[in-house]
Amino acid sequence: MSKEIENYWNATAQKYQKKSGISLASAHYGPYAPQEKDLKLLGNVRNKKILEIGCGGGQCSIAFARQGAKCTAIDLSEEQLKFAKELSKENKVEIDFRQGDFQDLKAFKSSSFDIVFSAYALQYSFDLRQVFSQVYRILKKRGLFVFSFDHPFYLIIKKKTKKIKESYFQTGRMESKSSWEDKNKNKIRFVYYKNKLSDIYNALADEKFMVEKILEPLDLKGEKAWTKGEWSKFYPKELVKLVGPTIIFKARKNK
C-alpha cells in the first residue's frame, strides 16, 4: 500500500474520527448500510478469533471484543491506531493492534483465524488478489471473510448532477483533484483504487472462496452522521436513494 495513503490517514485521522461518530454498539459496514446486528453475517462471535484488516479507529474490533471475540486488528496509520488504542482502553477491551500494510499478512500464521473482517478499507488495496490469497491462507477451514467498500456504481456518478462522470471500465489508481498540506507542509491527495464488480468476484473465486452473499443494502434511518456537514456532500441523500454507496461481500474458505 502506498506511502501517500499512510500520510493521508495520519494527517486526517483526528478530524475523521471526530466527525464520523462511528457507533460501538455493533460493527459498521459503511455509509447508509445496516450494522452487523441487523445483517447478522458473522453470527455469534464469542470466542472466535477475528482479524480486522484496515481497522481505522478500531470501532468494529471493539464491538466484536465486547461480544467476547478475540480480536487482532491491523492498520497502516499510526494516528488511527493511537485513537483505536485509547478507545479500546476506554471500553475496557483487549485488542492486539498492529501497525502494518494489510497487503502483506505474512506475520500471521496459516489457518489461525475464524473470521477476517474489513469495513471500507479494501479500496486502498492496489492488488485485491494478493490480499485475498493471504486472507484465504490465514483463515481456518470454513472460515469467514466478510468485507465492504465503496459500491463501484456509486463511484462513477457525479454527486451534484447525478450523471456518469467517468467510465465504469476505468479501474486502478484514482486520486482527488484537490490537495492540501499536512503539518509538515507536504501536499496530500486522497488516493484509492477502483474495481469492477466482476474484478472483485473473480478475485475471490480464483482463490477458491465460496461467495455466499453479495449485499447492496440501504438504510436511510441509520447513522445520522452521513446527513451532516461534509458527509452530506459525499453522500447526498437524493443520490443515495438511487444508488447505495456501500457493497458487502460474505465469502467462506472452501476447504
Sheet of most strands? 7 strands, mixed
Q: Which architecture name does CATH use?
A: 3-Layer(aba) Sandwich
User: Roughly what percent helix?
Assistant: 25-40%
Tally of alpha and pi helices: 9
Structural class, by secondary structure, is alpha/beta
Distance between the termini: 29 Å
Strand order of the largest sheet: 3-2-1-4-5-11-10
Spans where pLDDT lies below 50 across 5 or more residues: none
Overview of this structure, please?
The chain has 255 residues and is an alpha/beta fold. The protein has one domain (3-150, 196-253): Rossmann fold (3-Layer(aba) Sandwich). Helices cover 31% and strands 24% of the residues. The chain is built from nine helices and eleven strands. It has helices spanning 3-20, 36-39, 59-66, 78-90, 128-138, 152-155, 197-206, 229-234, 237-240, and strands at 49-53, 70-75, 96-99, 113-119, 139-150, 172-175, 180-181, 187-188, 191-194, 209-215, 246-253. It has a seven-stranded mixed β-sheet, sandwiched between helices. Helix 1 packs parallel to helix 4 (78-90) and helix 5 (128-138) runs parallel beside helix 7. The longest helix has 18 residues, at 3-20. The model has no long low-confidence stretch (mean pLDDT 92).
